[in-house]
Amino acid sequence: MVAWMTVASEGFAFTRSRPVEHQSSPGVTRGFCGRCGTSLTYVNVNDVGTVDVTLASLDAPNEVRPSAHTWMHDALAWDRPGDGLPHFERFRDPPS
């Protein structure tokens, strides 16, 4: 499992070197550290204007608070967070 945060791609930038990018499937590009291979980003052409960033790759990951748990369909049986946040089987419900 991995914790991601989704941010607007406009205004998002790396402050040092750019990641190595790999098209992992049609329409999906993943970014990795070119030195150690750490997963950094996920971009899907269907999610226009957003980039997902791995929380563990941030300098201060504890400053990011979750708003929901997504892709619970794929979660292990014991991974059922009880923090009161919404759970989504796959994608989050679109905003209303």
List descriptors.
96 residues, 2 domains, 0% helix, 5-stranded antiparallel beta sheet, 5 strands, mainly beta, globular
The dominant shape is: globular
Number of domains: 2
Main sheet summary: 5 strands, antiparallel
**Alpha carbon gyration radius:** 14 Å
Helix/strand/pairing category: mainly beta
Going across the biggest sheet, name each strand in turn.
Answer: 1-5-4-3-2
User: What are the secondary-structure elements, in order, as H or E?
Assistant: EEEEE
Distance between the termini: 28 Å
Kindly state the number of beta strands. Answer: 5
What is the beta-strand fraction?
25-35%
Helix content: under 10%
Oligomer: single chain
What's the total helix number? Answer: 0
Low-confidence stretches: none
Mean pLDDT: 89
Protein architecture, described:
This protein has 96 residues and is mainly beta. The protein folds into 2 domains: 1-7 and 19-58, no CATH class; 66-96, no CATH class. The protein has no helices and 5 strands. Strands 1-5-4-3-2 form a 5-stranded antiparallel sheet, with no helix packed on it. Strand 3 and strand 4 form a beta hairpin. The protein is globular. The two termini are 28 Å apart. 5% of the residues are buried. The model has no long low-confidence stretch (mean pLDDT 89).
